[in-house]
Structures are given as C-alpha cells and as structure tokens.
Amino acid sequence: MPSDPLVAQHVLEFPGGYTRTTGPVIGRFLSELRGRRIVGVRTKEGKVLVPPLEYDPATGEPVTGEFVEVGPAGTVTTWAFVPEPGAGHPLDRPFAWALIKLDGADTALVHAVDAGDPKRLRAGMRVWPVWNDHPTGQITDISCFVPEVTDIVANVRTEYRLQAGGALRVFLEGIERGVFLGGRCDTCAKVYVPYRLTCPECGNAIPETLELPDTGTITTFAINNLPDPRAPEVPFVSAYILLDGSDIPVIALIGDVPAHEVRQGMRVRAVWVPEPERTASMANIRWFAPTGEPDVEQP
Amino acid sequence: MGNRCAVIGIGQTRYRSRRTDMSIAGLVREAALRALEDAGLTFKDIDAVVIGKAPDLFEGVMMPESYLADALGAAGKPMMRVHTAGSVGGSTALVGASLIQGGVHERVLVVAFEKQSESNATWALSTHLPFSASLVVGAGGYFAPHIREYMRTSGAPDHIGTLVAVKDRLNALKNPYAHLRIPGIDRAMVESTPMLWEPIRYLETCPSSDGACAMVLSSEGAITGTPAWVHGTAMRSEPIFRAGRDTVSPQAGKDCAADVYRQAGISDPRRDIDVAEVYVPFSWYEPMWLENLGFAAEGEGWKLTESGATALDGDIPWNASGGVLSSNPIGASGLIRFAEAALQVRGTAGEHQVDGARTALGHAYGGGSQFFAMWIVGRDKP
C-alpha cells in the first residue's frame, strides 16, 4: 500500500524514563516486593491497604507507619478477561485482569491472573503469585497470579508380563487350531468351557479336555451403545452363548445381524478369521453369526 | 450371634459428582466426625477402625487404609480394610459388628468411601486382559443381559424399570445427602433418555458419586445416644463361573437372606420388615431382589413394584433414601444402605422417615452378583 505522506508515527518517550520518587510508604512496599514479600499499610482506623497508600482515601489522614505482611495468596473479587493480549500486557497469552484481595488485606490489588481457560475464572477463586526471577522493586516483580493448586495428576502405571499357563494355555492352543476346548467334571458331569483345571462346584480336578463344536445358542445379551476405545464400535451385541454340549455360557460378540434382530434362543456359529491370520487369542473369533436354524426355546 | 451390638452414631457426607474441596482423607473424616458427634463421642472413645472401599484401581491408591489411619484417629489402634467389591460397605459394617459381637472391642468405627471423580469406574472395571475379547464395558455392560433374562422369564412389562427410576429419585428429594436431585422426574423423562446398555436406560442407572459414610458400633455396655440394635448379620459369596448358576437370582443371595431372617426371627419379610434399604444400582434390580430376598414369589417381584408397595407410602418401602440410584460412592453405597436402615429404626431419618419403622433390612451386593451382605436392625433390643 503506498504510504500517505500526511500520516506519520510520532513517539513521546522521555529519554531514560522518568524518575519517580516513591516516598517512604510506596518505597517500603516496593522494597518488600524485591524481597518477595507483599506488605500493606495500616490506617488509623485499623484497615490494611494493599497496595499501600500514603494517605487514607477514606479520611484523608496519613496512614500509620505500621506495615503488615499479607498474602501471598488471595481471592479474586472480580475480573475482566483479555482474550488477545497487547504489546504492553504482562502476558503474551489470554489472561485476566483481576482485583485480588490478598489474605490479611482490606483492599484489593489489581494484577494479572493466568488461569488459561476463561471458564476457570470466577469470583472467589484462590490465587497465588508467581515471582519474577530477578525482582528489582517493581509491581512486575510479581509476573502474575495463578490458581491455587487443587489437584495433581498422579500417573500410576503398572506393567505385567502375562503368561497364559495351565488351563488357559491349553484352551488358547485349541483356539489357534480353530476349536473350543472344554472339560467335563468327573463328579458333577458338568462341561466347562473354556477348559479349566478344577470344577468350581466340586473342586475336583478336570484332567482331560473335551472338544466342543463352534455352534451354540444365545441365552441372553446386551446391546451396548456406550462407546469405549477398547471395545467394538457401537452399537455392538455382547451375548452369552451356550456352546452345544457345554453347561456354562461364554461371552462373545454377535455379528452379521442387526443388533435389534438378535434374540434369546437364537442359534449361532463362530466366524473364525482366515487360517493364516490365526493366533492363540480370542481375536481368532471375529464374532458369532446366526446359523439360520430355528430358535431354541429357553427354559 | 454373640454379644449384643448396636449402631449408636451415623455420619454421611453430601454425595455429589465431585468433592473438589477435599482429599480422600478429608472426605472420610467428615463422615467419621459426624458419626462420632451423633454418638456424642470422640476418636478417643473408639477401640478399632474398619475401612471399606471398592477396588484400589478406582482411585489408584493402593492400601488406602494405611494412608487414612491418621484421618480416622486410628494410630495405635487395630485397623483393617475390607474388600468385597460393591458389597464392601455392607461387609465393612458386618466385620465391625463381629468385633463387638465377639467381645473383642466395645466401640468400633466403620467407614466406607469412594471418590469416583478421581478416575472412572467403567475404565477400572474393564481392564481387558490380553488373549481375551474386550466386550464388557463397565457394570452396566455386565448386568444388562441378566436384566434382559429377568424381563423374559418374569414376563414383566417394559415400564417396571422406569417406575423404580422415578420412585427412588422422588425419595431422594427428601434426603439432604442424596446426589441426584431431579425435581419433576417422571416416566416420560426416564423413557426419553438413551439406552446405554439395552435394556438399561441412562436414567435407570446409578450416578458416579464422591462420598463417605461412617457408623459407630457399640457393645451393650458402651452405648451412648439412640441405639439401632443389630438383630442379624450374614454374608455369602459364590463363584461367578459355575455351571447352572442362576445369575438373575443367585443362590448366595437367597442363602444370605435366609440366614439373616432366621437370626432376626423373620418368617415373612414383607410383613415383618417395615423398611428396606437394598442395593439397586440399576432400576430393574428392585423387582429382581424383591424375589431373591423373599418379598415376592419368583416372577412376581415386578407386581409389587407396579402396585406401589415399595414406594415411601407403600406397605414395604424400599430405598426411602433414594438408594444407590440416587447416590453411588461405590465403596460406601453398601454402608449407606446399612446406615439408612439404622436411621429408620432410630426414627432419625428426617423427611424420608417411614412412620413407626421398627425393623429394617440393610442389603448390599457386589461383583457379578456374587457377594452379598445383609443385616437386620431393630428399634427393640433383641
């Protein structure tokens, strides 16, 4: 854009900056800031003014010489959010100008609050100062105030090496070959699948495996609509399936049928992944799909 | 049953989604101090502390009882933790009571809690081990098929679950500690909410709550304040995988009820019990437990619900407090049932008091309906 000869920048800046004499009251406040303490001054009425003033605005009387350490934490009384900070602002990211009543003070101090999200800000919020690395005796010795620590993130993690042993290994080796292995309890004659070493009813050993067909009947099921990153895409049907010849249902996914057409008593067969893709894992079974046989009446 | 035992102090926190104002220690202490205040006692008067909570994975704090000893004034005293999944609150009260009944201690503080906001119970209950298929998502995913089976075998109409969801939330409006407060809740509102785990709708499930509950249990000789007398205590469990297991009405629940009724001299629970606080985290579990606990014949529980018998003004109010459907700090939920039963027979339940309640059932279940804990408390000395 061609420059307009009648538009010019003009800067007024006193060389080196103005010298400002603080006087004893403000000087004490700034000296304390340099020492990373915040003080107020007490008025004759007993109020603590923060930041201190030399004369009590309520009465016009000089304040007392008594300085009181306040804070360092305080409470936000009101605030205005600055979504786009300008060049002269203390922070280069969205922040709030807030009135902060420091603990022990009777008046509020204006300062910047770095709370990130404006939704976090509210009157009554507890805030703490963040100090500048090199305090020199200016209000900017406090870089800003930040919300009080109210929670921490505890990254708890345990890592196990899981080894399929005993019965589970036997069962999964069967799954790798494309068969369900169960076992019959000698005492109560119940057939358990997956294969297990002992009967949960009698406590007796189940010494031998029994090969079961991959067909069965849905006893009951749920239609899951609550998404979970570790589960199949919703809606999915998780069903209890009583494999033919067994006495305890296994839980499995139902596929190749709309969720609302699944029925209790429906006949289903396992759909296996192609042989080259098989591993010793339940991932070998994509799901169970209806066989088209008539439903089995449920007791 | 051993020596006589009584509840002499009850304390609860307000139940809500997030208690961001306090730590777990602060939470259990709030409940404990209220229970002590109710009994007119201090930590000095307590001989032993029993803590209950659900799986450690819920908050990621292992052996939280060790960390909580200071908050509960347990330093230098016997202190133990109970863990029986969702039934743990009930089991905690029963372990505490057994220490009194066995003559070991004079006064025992029992406390149970959960701070669900620290993580996510559905995540913690769905750990998805290697080699297995990842199909069960949370407690709802587990219980939905068993509710479907109940609906099929009993022939209950679809709206029964809705009735319980409304009734318990209306009761919650009378309980100052309840988490869910839904003024104007009705069947249409419940039915308009989505199916999470069909046949369970959103408003037919319990909330996730932060909270704690505490009780002071006392021997007969150490009673202060108003006692609720323990008339019977029972715990049962059964294997989750057992051929022929009735997952709708588990044998362990029936056995547990029969045992506690025998001790308390109850022959007809619907007639002999005035009010029941029963662990109903999904609305359909009210008719299911009505049958399992012998309040109705098999297949008939839903008729009791439908008739209004379990409402606050019915002949056998269930969950006058609003129940688990209204407040669910999981580990504490069972203890809250036991405590609410005691409040009723002491006549101190406030706005949700059942007039003239003399005998009450507290019930909790957990895991895949495999752990049960129950007690009967009464106004009269057994």
UniProtKB/TrEMBL annotation, chain B:
Residue ranges occupied by any Thiolase C-terminal domain in the UniProt entry: 246-377
Matching CDD domains: SCP-x_thiolase (cd00829)
Gene3D superfamilies reported for this sequence: 3.40.47.10
Molecular functions per Gene Ontology: acyltransferase activity, transferring groups other than amino-acyl groups
Official protein name in the record: Thiolase domain-containing protein
Organism annotation: Nonomuraea deserti
Species classification: Bacteria, Bacillati, Actinomycetota, Actinomycetes, Streptosporangiales
